[in-house]
Amino acid sequence: MSPEPVTPSPVTDAEVTDTLPEDLDITALQAPYEFPNNSRRRIPGVLYLLVGGVAIVAWVLTRGDEPVLVNTGVLLGGIALVLFGLYHLQAGWDLSFDERDALVAATREVGFPVGHASAQLGWRGLRSRPTWRILLYSNESPPSQRGLALVDGVDGEIIDTWVEANPEDWSDLE
Fold first, then answer.
1. Over the stretch 19-51, which tens digit does the pLDDT of each residue have?
2. What domains appear along the chain, each with residue ranges and CATH number?
3. Which of 1, 10, 147, 164 has the smallest set of CB atoms within 10 Å of its CB?
4. pLDDT of 80-118, one tens digit each?
5. What is the C-alpha to C-alpha distance for residues 54 and 78, in angstroms, rounded to an integer?
6. Residue by residue, what is the 3-state secondary structure of 53-114?
7. Across all residues in the chain, what is the average pLDDT?
8. Does the CA dihedral 40-46-47-52 come out positive or negative?
9. CA nearest to 142, candidates 119, 167, 112
10. Interatomic CA distance for residues 21 and 3, integer angstroms
């Protein structure tokens, strides 16, 4: 005798809930968020240099013995690690200009009173210099202007700005 198939009971909308995991719930934050400093790249840079140097030294010390485990691949890997470590050291800029400082600099530059704004950190150039991208909207409702400012994260220099009339149509939200 086969068992009777079980039919699931219907779930109502009231029974369905969606919650954020604890680590993403911003209401539980006790202190302001601090963006990680870009200079942390120097730590793995030093580690890459050390491991690469050890690999090169191991290759040099066993070079004439027809080694099985330490061959030309170890040398090439050591050189690659040293180069990668040097890149990390030079790209480990100190992020001395945080998002609040960048927002103040961008607000001065765009020339209109700012309402909503958003900051994003990006990197530019081969040396990965940190750059804040600040999106700004005027303080009217709905905003009549918007702007984008690129602010250097090392010295706070304004790299570029774009300001335009807000092309978004928000009439259906009124």
1. 777 777 767 767 766 777 888 889 999 999 999
2. 38-91 (no CATH), 99-173 (3.10.450.40)
3. 1
4. 999 999 999 999 888 888 888 999 999 999 888 888 888
5. 8
6. HHHHHHHHHCHHHCCCCCCHHHHHHHHHHHHHHHHHHHHCCCCCCCHHHHHHHHHHHHCCCE
7. 86
8. positive
9. 167
10. 38
- Residue 143 pLDDT > 70: yes
Of 53 and 8, the structure prediction assigns the larger pLDDT to 53
Tokens (6 digits) for 173: 């939200």
Give the HSE-up count for residue 95: Cα atoms under 13 Å, Cβ half-sphere: 22
Alpha-carbon distance of 143 to 126, in angstroms, equals: 36
Residue pair 39/93 in contact (Cβ under 8 Å)? The answer is yes
Q: Which of 155, 110, 129 is nearest to 38 (CA)?
A: 129
SS3 content of the chain, % helix, strand, coil (to 5): 40, 20, 40
Q: Is pLDDT at 170 greater than 70 in this prediction?
A: no
Strand order in the sheet with 158-165: 114-124, 129-138, 145-152, 158-165
Q: For 62, list phi and psi in degrees, rounded to 5.
A: -110, 15
Percentage of residues in the chain with pLDDT exceeding 90?
A: 39
